[in-house]
Task: structure prediction
Amino acid sequence: MDPVDINIYGIQGVYILWVLTAISMFFFLRRIVKIVGILKKAKPENRFENIKEHIVNFILFVLGQKKIFGERTIGLPHFFFFWGFVFYAGSFWWNLIRGLIPVLPIPYSDEVGIVALALEITGVLVILSIIVAVLRRIFFPPAHLQQSFDAVIILSLIAILMITLLLGQGYNGTLEASVWSPIGGIIASGLTGISESTAIAAFKAFWWVHIIAVLFFLAYIPYSKHMHLLASPFNVLFRNNSQPADLTINSKSEDVTTGASKWNEFTWKDLLNSFSCAECGRCDRACPALNSGMPLAPRVILHKIKEQMYETGFKSTGNGIPELFAEKISKEELWQCTTCMSCMQQCPVLNEHIPVIVSMRRFLINQGEVEQTVQDVLQKITRYGNSFGQSDRNRAKWVTTLEPKIKDARKEEVEYLWITGDYAAFDTRLQGITQKTAMIFQKAGLDFGILYEAEKNSGNDVRRIGEEGLFEIVKEKNIQSMQKAKFKKIITTDPHTYNTLKNEYKLNANGNSISVHHYTEVIDELIRNNKFSVNKKLNIRATYHDPCYLGRYNGVYEPPRKILKSIGITLVEMPRNKAKSYCCGAGGGRIWMEDKTPVKERPSENRIREAVSLKDVSTLVVACPKDIVMFQDAIKTTGNEEKIEVKDISELVFEAMG
Result:
């Protein structure tokens, strides 16, 4: 039975189908062409290298829905929903082509037994997934989820598609029963007594309602927030594979270093993020700034850029586009970002929020629109090479009381060059910890040295502030100093320094890349190789905070935990641990900024309360100098001085060595 075989007012069904398809494709392609036109007006960027990695990403995150499974309640339903829709889409195009070209010697998809069965199973699974989604939105709505009429339209359309599919199978089942149509058979059993002509008419009616709904759905998608269904697979395919939250400027456009203040000053991949956003709110839920009551919301940043594209991109060549800061995004929003990468880690479509935010920060920096405290720090780094504004001679002042004296890697060959970073070297609260770290290395017989006054600020936070020029200056100075030293590997104290040396300096010697290690990785290796003895088991209950730049950025989760267990510490994990660790609030230059607007709770205070809530835990262990600074202050402001203390891993290891 051919459902296209109808005649309405003398017009054959095939012609009606052609007209409806043409209308749908006109509106669909019209919008897609305009969106592609917007992307072509953006700055160029090379995202076509490492094709194999791009394909692997597509398989894992699009076909495998890897990120979606991070959501316990919606992960599996979404997986069925996605694959059901993919399979159904294939069936739809099969049927549409068959209907448009009746002479094709192929059956409709529901006339092929195994396909008919798969379609019915798909229909049931998708309907169940819709029910779960609706119940979740009505009775258990996540705070971060944006309710919209658009979502109601899409869910209703998909429900109509599946219901008409199954009802059509049911009416067809009254005409001809099939073992390949069990759901249709069940529906048909409730339709006994209807005439053959009624069954045929009903089957054709549901087929046409179904086709019209699909064609409307196709035309509607590019105009709705569900544009992400089309854009996100490409967003995943062209994700950055080189390093996390990569800030390397790959564009050939010279003015891209000045940052972006309008949509056409971003790269095409930056803009693709906005079209790919599903507005699920997972990034907002994870954002420490937003959860502290600050105005930043990662989802909203992308949405506002998309708004400006829609308002001006379809009718402008780029002239006369207002700045985003004039009407869309406040400067205050951009300075709240800690670059912790929680938003990117949570995003199911692999949006890259941080490069977008930093690009706008670059513009503000170039315009001199940054608060005075940050300007002061940047000037100190420019003049003195450190964020404390101290003389180079004071950088290694903490070594003066140590015996034996730490080697100068510029004068003596060493295996490890230790880059301590500004805070571990200059902050008086941290110098004692740095000394203990050095003594651990010495007792273990580690061959290491430092650059003394030749070390400069690594520039990790300088770059994330948006001062790209200053980053390149300090990077070049550090590389020049390292080239004068004799070493094989690098140790870092600060995870921020670890990240930029490992991922952004591209260090090499004699054509070989130089490996960069965090001190916890080195201590863990020393313990495993029995390079020193643990003479005292500490026997305390503690929790560990994963630094953003050690964990999320570089995947170093286990070495710190192995160290703690090896020295007798009972580790009690906080609910938000490892990749979901909650930022202390120091990153992205935030440690240099003041909160000009009242906040309900700083990120560091939130984290301290989480640690205090753990039963019988009195120690919060950290592996980042900035964490100590932030958490010690937060303990005081939350009034928890008697309940918990902050300890660096090195302090505990030193104590366990006896």
